[in-house]
Amino acid sequence: MGDRLEHTASQLNRLGDLVADFVAQYLSDLEELDVSPASITPEEVQKSLSEPLPLEAQELDEVWSDFQDSVVDQSVRVGHPQFLAWIRTSPLGGAVFAEALAAALNQSVAVWDGAPAATEVEKMVIQWLIEISGYDPQGGGILTSGGSMANFTGLLAALSSVFPRVREQGVRDGPPLAVYLTSQTHYSVHKAVEMMGVGRKAIRTVPVDDDLRMDAEALAARIRGDRQKGTQPLAVVATLGTTSTGSCDDLLSLGRVCREEKVWLHVDGAYGGVAGLIPGKRHLVRGLSEADSFVLDPHKNLFMPFEAGCLLVRDLDHLRSAFAVRTDYLPNTEGGLIREQSLRHHFRDYGPQLSRGFRALKIYLTLKLYGLNDIAKEIAREYDLAEKFAGMIHRAEDFETLADVALGVVAFRYLPRDTMDRERVNAFNAEMVEELQRRGKVFLSKIVVQGQVGFRACFVSHRTRSSHLQGVLDEVREVARVVQGMGE
After folding, report:
1. What is the DSSP letter of 231?
2. Which helix or strand (DSSP H or E) is residue 143 part of?
3. Which residue, of 274, 301, 314, 325, has the fewest CB within 10 Å?
4. Among candidates 258, 362, 252, which has minimal Cα distance to 310?
5. How many CA atoms lie within 13 A of 172 on its CB side?
6. For residue 343, how many other CB atoms are within 10 A of its CB?
7. Can you say how many angstroms the Cα of residue 482 is from the centroid of all Cα atoms in its chain?
């Protein structure tokens, strides 16, 4: 690079060619490789990446070789058609390149004046996500890093709504609080309650029905009981597509309870937030439009690369009340003397972050490049694939499902032929998950449903086909034989 820090145009072109060729080849060849490096250990990865701080520039060929050997070859291939462990979608190629464009523009989407186009793109994308999900068309929101930050942000808005003085006085100024959820609620909600300073004692675990949905009658009883004891209900957290099984709470019945009891309804739809796109699943989102806040993750359900989460609220003023701060060194929304100033939307006033990446660009460009209709057809195909996989399990003598399939998640377990008690069956399946991941041919995760340990297969990749399903079961059976042999 000579005396200049920046690469020349020809050098950047060469680097760009390497990157573009890599992305195209990597996404095309995924199925020909294992899901993950077999038997990889932390020690091996740490050793291969261990090097002194680079004080001088290295040659591009050397840097690229290190990237291939130490990073690419030791990464789990999340886009592989047999990566079914977690709800991590395989990003579309166009979305990957859109992320590079956002990095080049390097917009901090905090104040309109510093990122005018990026701000307006995010506002439009949020309206698109409202339309896609079926949420209240009068609502608004903000893009986040993912569901965890979106849940945290939504519950902070609920806290500010319940206690307008909380930003000045803190939670000590009010009565004890209660947040209502179930055993199926994502752990990020527990973390959010802790980070808010409310404390784990505020968590109320409401029973679920046979379909793992929050019991509305039990919820109402808990709320009334808490009020009689002087505890203030803060929020009810419903789930649209649980992480464990994909089950969906009955939003209509929970919404009715929340309206009657005047309690904030927060819906975590990080995974299932787009279920309303699919004709056979639209009943699952009935009542969604009346939720006070709602989370969905395009990086889980719209084939975007990380990070792309979203929080939507029915009333944007709740976010402003929770997060807006006046400063002398940044533009402020209120107090403008001209109409143009009042139209400038500053996202820094609607969430915890000031520095915010241009997350909306990949959503904006991907929807334009691929179209929502084809994306919705793909989501429907993945839901159908989960049903087909569950059917294969039902017909097999050595497997059983652990829950009904609501969306694209299948929870199941292996049943050893030898007679085993429940505890030993659980231990056997847990060992199988570890061995399966160690082998790297198929990647499933461990799940516990109502005390039963098994596997979780998440159908969220456009690369997974019907032809892969039998191979998944065959590999699990092979792992069962290996684990059985290890125990003899």
Report:
1. P
2. strand 140-144
3. 325
4. 362
5. 2
6. 10
7. 33
Q: What are phi and psi of 361, to 5 degrees?
A: -60, -45
What residues form DSSP beta bridges with 401? Answer: 412
Beta strands in 15-111 (DSSP E): none
pLDDT single digits (tens) 2-58:
456 788 899 899 999 999 999 999 999 988 889 998 878 899 999 999 999 999 989
Integer Cα distance of 204 and 182 in angstroms: 8
The token duo for 479 is 């792992």
Residues in the chain: 488
Distance CA 443, CA 354 (A): 37
pLDDT tens for each residue of 195-232: 999 999 999 999 999 999 999 999 999 999 999 999 99
Please give the average per-residue pLDDT across 90-108, as a whole number. 95
State the pLDDT confidence band at 488, using cuts at 50, 70 and 90: low
Distance, in Å, from the CA atom of 234 to the CA atom of 231, rounded to the nearest integer, reads 9
Give the count of beta carbons closer than 10 Å to the beta carbon of residue 41. Answer: 10
Q: Which two tokens stand for residue 257?
A: 């309870």
The three-class DSSP label of residue 406 is: coil
What are the angstrom distances between the C-alpha of 194 and each of 70, 72, 201? Answer: 37, 36, 9
Let me know: does 466 contact 79? Beta carbons within 8 Å: no
pLDDT at residue 485 in the model? 78
φ and ψ of 431, to 5 deg? -65, -40
Residue 30: which residues within 8 A CB-CB, separation 6 or more? 77, 79, 80, 81, 90, 463
Would you state the structure tokens that stand for residue 105, as one six-digit string? 């523009």
Q: With contact defined as beta carbons under 8 Å apart, do 243 and 277 qualify? A: no
CB 174 within 8 A of CB 232: yes
> Cα 158 vs. chain centroid, distance in angstroms?
21
In angstroms, the first-to-last Cα distance of the chain is 62
